[in-house]
Amino acid sequence: QVQLQESGPGLVKPSQTLSLSCTVSGGSITSDYFYWSWIRQPPGKGMEWMGAIYYSGTTYYNPSLKRRTSISRDTSKNQITLQLTSVTPEDKAVYYCHDDTSDVWGQGTQVTVSS
């Protein structure tokens, strides 16, 4: 059973870059046909898909966030990483890692943007 655990700073200053990691256990991020997404939920709003990375390393992004978003992987750590540049208070949200193949969610990590 795949398990996901997000980690990263809970507080980021405006204009800085947010970096989050998703550690995958119980499976390999390079397993054939697996793909992983980052999804966030701002307070009082619905889920927003940010982007995904496939087992091959190919990435896809939400067009509205593409300019600021980068998803990558560290195969040595079995981690999926998210970077979001030039953050603003509107980027405050709970950020989730999701195994799209098995429909498994991480517990989410709260991120606040404030000086």
Largest sheet: 7 strands, mixed
* Computed structural class: mainly beta
Round the Cα radius of gyration to an integer and report it.
13 Å
Q: Uncertain spans, ≥5 residues at pLDDT below 50?
A: none
Q: Tally the beta strands.
A: 11
Any idea what the shape is? globular
Give the fraction of residues assigned to helices. under 10%
**Ends apart, CA distance between termini:** 39 Å
Helical run tally: 0
* Average pLDDT score: 95
User: What share of the residues does DSSP label as strand, in percent?
Assistant: over 45%
N-to-C order of helices and strands: EEEEEEEEEEE
Give short descriptive properties of this protein.
115 residues; mainly beta; 0% helix
Can you tell me about this structure?
There is one protein chain. The chain is globular. It is an all-beta fold and 115 residues long. The termini are far apart. It is built from no helices and eleven strands. It has strands at residues 3-7, 11-12, 18-25, 35-41, 48-54, 59-61, 69-74, 79-84, 93-99, 104-105, 109-113. The strands form two sheets. Strands 2, 4, 5, 6, 9, 10 and 11 form a seven-stranded mixed β-sheet that branches. The chain has a four-stranded antiparallel β-sheet with strand order 1-3-8-7, with no helix packed on it. A hairpin with a 4-residue loop joins strand 7 and strand 8 (79-84).
